[in-house]
Write a structure and sequence with these properties.
This is Helix-turn-helix transcriptional regulator. This protein is an alpha+beta fold. The chain has helices spanning 4-22, 63-71, 91-97, 129-156, 165-177; strands at residues 26-32, 40-46, 57-58, 75-77, 101-109, 112-121. The longest helix is centred in the C-terminal third of the chain and has 28 residues, at 129-156.
Length: 178
Amino acid sequence: MGERRGDTAELRAALLRMRRATGLPVAFGGLLGGRPGARLRIEELSGASSGALRGLAIGSGSGLGGRSMVLARPCAVADYRAARHISHEYDGPVAAEGLRSVLAVPVVVGHRVRAVLYGALRAPLPLGGRVLDAAVAVARDMGQALAVRDEEPRLVGPVPGTGGPAARGAAVWEAVRE
């Protein structure tokens, strides 16, 4: 599934890109555990004014992010408190951070959700198509980075039937070039 520390660094970088690309003042997210039924844990925050969201364990189908995980597609609400199509298990921490408009975008690698990126405003305003498109692009870039990280050991590992280090290096570069 990739090296955990590297995945966390990629998540942190994606959240900074999310804020820059969307203009949203708050971004946060987490990685999904590798086993079936695992919860997403919010572990990185950017632009948050409190730690209220840190450590939240998001269950599949719960809240906006859980809905995004189940559907494997972006979800957004213009007013989190008033949204009727999501469950409200996380209202307390979301209110403590002062968030109102929220979007959640899954990071999909190989048809599997690996992370969810959130962006938010502290006012109940609709999030337009440009904002959603930018968030989706950031999630797609993170998914590609995780896929490359997952494949890296296979690509740089020993190549069967090669002579020495020089031949192995040439074979690896040839595989990458293809």
